[in-house]
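Please check these two lines:
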Amino acid sequence: MMKVLVYGSGGRDHCLADKYGDSQHVDKVYFAPGNPGVSYTPKGQRGLIERIRIKDFKEIADFCIENKIDLVDVGSENPLEEGLIDMLNERGIRTIGPRKEYVRLESDRAFTDDLLRKIGVPKPEYRVFDDPEKAKEYVRNIGYQVVVKANGLAAGKGAIVCDDVSDAIAAIESIMVKKVFGESGNRVVIEERKYGTEISFFAYLDGMHVMPLKMFAQDYKPAFDPDDRELIEQFGGNLNTGGTGCYCPHKEVSPWLVNRIIKEIVNPTVNSIYNDLGWAYKGIIYFGLNLDPYDRLDVFEINVRHGDPEWPVIARKLSTDLFEIGMAVWDESLDRIKQVWNKQHYVDVIAMEGRSKASKGWNKGYPGRYGKGHKILGLDKIEKGVAIYFAGVDEDPEKGLVTYGGRALHVIVGDSTLKGAREKAYRNVELLAFEDHNNNGTNCLRFRKTIGL
């Protein structure tokens, strides 16, 4: 029996640990640095998944050697960019995830956009700027709506969708001058705004082969539902987030569209990675796509890790053993893996920090400033068969499990129909509450109500 270590602490990483725990080959999953929510789950309570509070890369490598870990899966972009895979490989440890050099596909949008344009993969018109004044002059002159993107990593929040010139100028000012995303805003990519349906498409690479997952999901980036006008006004627009929910299978899933995505986007990109760049890339690639009303596909982002919240719903839909996929990535044998998908529909509703009382004034809630330390209530009421993946949580010696991040919990439900999955997901998220200790114990949990519609 095998041992796996998942490195990360969010909902996507908890889902990875949970999925490896389902493998017939695995009898132990370590979750590092993890989060305390895992101990509130059945797999955590029986010791199948164990949290290891180690963050330092060298200590992780030492732990893997001492405990004879068979495979390490790194779920998040920051440790990948900081070179965790490189360090583990130098110690002879099997891994899933790209080496530091290859993270450039996500951390340098301009590099990736130029690569895609060169090989003819469809994407929106774009320009790259280092100077905020030249960027502002550009958006004043072009006349069409744009998206302003920080060039570097920004935890899934670095794109600002603009309705008009004033929005675009404000976005440039926010990213390049005020540096709301830090050094990632030293350069911006200004891209033509597209309308249509968002598609999240994944492919595993083993350095020789590619295995596109023949299933895809729809992510919901905006912070609020379209009719939440008061909140949208308070926040100065419907801000993009790291994701407020997701569903799978996407309403547009069909063999025809899957084949188009593979032919037009995945294969040319992977061919360029292997042959033009010469990278022995081992891990997953996530393509953020737009399908417009005229059936044109465009790539608007490429990420080098599992999506969040896309991965949790895709993982629930996937019936192939994840450990077998992981080992095939390492062994360069993905061509032997058979994909199996169950017939369920899955909905993921994210429980977020809403408006809460601060010691002085008020917290507007995620994606703005949010409170922490709110006791999480109602977990004992969740229906059987509902998966809770913990993200922004912590443990308090008196209160027990409390909120720590803006996106605290994933509530994921499967059903034979999308309608049934939605109804059950919302029925269960409404059983939960975040107790606002500064406001007479009122509930400060917030969630979007239109996921899956």
Remarks:
- The longest strand covers residues 197-206.
- The two ends are 42 Å apart (CA to CA).
- The mean pLDDT is 94.
- Residues 197-216+253-336 form a domain with the D-amino Acid Aminotransferase; Chain A, domain 1 fold (CATH 3.30.470.20).
